[in-house]
Amino acid sequence: MDLLANLMLGFESAVTLQNVLYCFAGVTVGTLIGVLPGMGPVATVAMLLPITYALDPASALIMLAGIYYGAQYGGSTTAVLVNIPGEAAAVVTCLDGHRMARQGRAGAALGIAAIGSFIAGTFATLLIATFAPPLTALAFHFGPAEYFSLMILGLVGAVVLANGSLLKAIAMIFVGLLLGIVGADINSGALRFTFGVDELMDGIDFVALSMGIYGFAEIMKNLELSATRSVASIKVEGVLPTKDDLKVSAGAIARGTLLGSFLGILPGGGALLSSFASYTLEKKLAGTKANPAFGEGNIRGVAGPESANNAGAQTSFIPMLTLGIPSNAVMALMIGAMMIHDITPGPQVMNTDPALFWGLIVSMWIGNFFLILLNLPLIGVWVQLLKVPYRWLYPAILAFCCIGVYSINNNVFDVWMTIGFGLLGYLFMKLDCECAPLILGFILGPMMEENLRRALLLSRGDMTIFVTSPISCGFLVLALGLLLLVLAPTVRTGRETAFKED
Asked: DSSP code of 316?
């Protein structure tokens, strides 16, 4: 009964004209960004953070959430039609989706992707609504030591699941932690790493950092790519899969939904890991009897990963909403949006602002319904957007970013910082360093420091408080186990191979 009462409260909050419009705007922009290769949801959410400053908190979070899971839908369109993943999680969709398109079955591939994503999104939203209250209740038993150890586990998970070199991922974590402590010390008020610059006394602005690292850097990287894409050779005729397609795909959709729902909760997990895992599972289950073979246009190779990436995208909200811990870069940006609106992320949100909490969850159902309406009838529109040269889009995006950053504090220094972080982000990309661990380190660093100090104050400097608490010790053991596991030669080799797959 409590669940029904909470969902009714969520409907009252989400089903207002303003919030429905912002939900529709979010999923539309998310689909658009997913369709246009090269941007992705992280860069888009970072760019749109300044807009949310003028909105009320519920509308802001609903729109940003819509952008995130909307991009998971839109990314499949370019993966199928032009063999270019619009979003990283759509990489594996290219393998069978584009082959189906070349065989004249582009409509079936896009249709099954939309249907699978809708089913997965609906299930994941129900999962969030069911498990969020007990997890939030559990979080109230956490003290400073437990939170510190949980954040250590989150950072270790981000390192383990980051693309590329483990050493580079660890280095990016430390860069993020160092950037996070710039400014006045929270206890003593002493200035740290400000180098006499008055604008840094309050710390580095999160919007400037995130927009530079992701927005500006992504634009610089994409300017190196070809300005046009050829989509004329692919025709989309009918987007509704046949009964046989639905029958064959049903198992893959169910398995992808369950797998993605679980992996999305893990630190550093989410849509990307879920889609790779689902494709691997379907390929293993089919074996050599798959007809057609995987990689040759098997519809299960589209249905499973597309269901998994959407489920993973939405269940990644669970640790963010219940514990205040981001499981990936987008969730870190969502926490940044909450902080902009003076909302302290964590378990207290459910009690202090239940309308916002449950309104965000219910808006996911509404958003998934909008996405079905957008993706199935408007495929032709998305195809035409693929023909727009990128060089026409980027000047407008850069101008929008600069105006947005300036509008937060009315400070030109923030614009220069964004440009500087853009150059830094571009350098990291050229060095094959993933920026997601940096963002997580920047968000979690100050929170880790605060909880570390509180724990040591309570224990009068006794470091054993982190291992005498069963919950804290359990988190630290899990973190150590993850590190030891990934350092094992066999696991390390398999991990590197998996992340090089394209």
From this structure: T
Strand bridging mode 183-184 / 191-192: antiparallel
Burial class of 416 by CB neighbour count within 10 A (0 to 12, 13 to 18, 19+): middle
DSSP code string of 48-108 = HHHHHTTS-HHHHHHHHHHHHHHHHHHHHHHHHHHS--SSGGGTTHHHHHHHHHHTT-HHH
* Separation of alpha carbons 362 and 367, rounded Å: 9
SS3 380: helix
- First-to-last alpha carbon distance for the chain, in angstroms, is 47
Burial zone of 187 (CB within 10 Å; 0-12 exposed, 13-18 middle, 19+ buried)? exposed
3-state secondary structure at position 193: coil
| Angle subtended by helix axes 166-180 and 144-160, to nearest 10 | 140
Rounded CA-CA distance 135/119 in Å is 24
Residue pLDDT, tens place only, 394-412: 777 777 778 777 876 778 8
* CA distances, 420 to each of 210, 213, 415, 464 (Å): 11, 9, 9, 41
**Contact in structure between 131 and 262 (CB atoms under 8 Å):** no
The mean pLDDT value of the chain amounts to: 79
CA 379/CA 235 separation, integer angstroms = 11
Burial class (CB in 10 A: 0-12, 13-18, 19+), 389: exposed
Give the sign of the dihedral formed by CA 321, CA 327, CA 328, CA 333: positive
Angle between helices 93-102 and 300-315 (to 10 degrees): 140
The string of DSSP codes covering 93-141 is HHHHHHHHHHTT-HHHHHHHHHHHHHHHHHHHHHHHHHHHHHHHHHHTT
Q: How far apart are CA 234 and CA 320, in angstroms?
A: 40
pTM: 0.73
Q: Using one digit for the tens of pLDDT, what is the confidence trace for 348-369?
A: 787 788 888 888 888 888 888 8
Report the alpha-carbon distance of residue 62 to residue 98 in Å, rounded: 32
